Amino acid sequence: MKKKKMERKERSSATLPLSIKCAEENNGVDPRVTRFVLPLGATINMDGTALYEAVAAIYISQCVGQDLSIGQVILVSLTATLASIGAAGIPQAGIVTMIMVLIAIGLPSNLFILIFPVDFFLDRIRTTVNVHGDAIGAAVVGKLCEGYLKKVPLGRPLPLLD
């Protein structure tokens, strides 16, 4: 008897159907908002990944005894933010983009191995932060558009804004 391989899906792209369901049913966000904001957020809102890359790069630099200047810390923040937006929705994509951050501050790319043993666990935390941020974004947009969305019944196309 063959065993099926368990497919790992720990990225916010994989949680999208459940995120939409929870935002609509549990939080009462309009479906027109959730079905626009959540896929957009799952694509470009990778704040958990950006935080992880910045903290990991600073941790790695401290492990090897390199003190970062204020300019390098700002460079880490900018590089991590921009790299996280371009990160693919696949497991361990943060490792590849973290190498970019390490290179930007002048550290050897092979030092990512210092964080690799705990990356599997940290990936779950990154995904949680990303999904939570997307849900909050959908709730805020839903609240801001509440008056406008009440004017148009569900199922009808929204008219252009005047």
Task: Describe the protein.
By secondary structure, the chain is mainly alpha-helical. The chain is built from seven helices and no strands. It has helices at residues 16-25, 31-44, 47-63, 70-85, 93-104, 116-144, 146-151. Helix 3 (47-63) crosses helix 5 (93-104). Residues 3-10 have low confidence and may be disordered.
Summarize the topology.
Layout lengths: L15 H10 L5 H14 L2 H17 L6 H16 L7 H12 L11 H29 L1 H6 L11
Helix pairs in contact: 1-2, 1-6, 2-6, 3-4, 3-5, 3-6, 4-5
User: How many angstroms does the end-to-end distance come to?
Assistant: 64 Å
Helix segment tally: 7
Summarize the helix and strand pattern as letters.
HHHHHHH
Per DSSP E runs of 2 or more residues, the count of β-strands stands at 0
For the report, how would you describe the main beta sheet? none
Helix content: 55-70%
Throw out a few tags for this protein.
162 residues; 7 helices; mainly alpha; 64% helix; single chain
Give a brief rundown of this model.
The protein has 162 residues and is mainly alpha-helical.
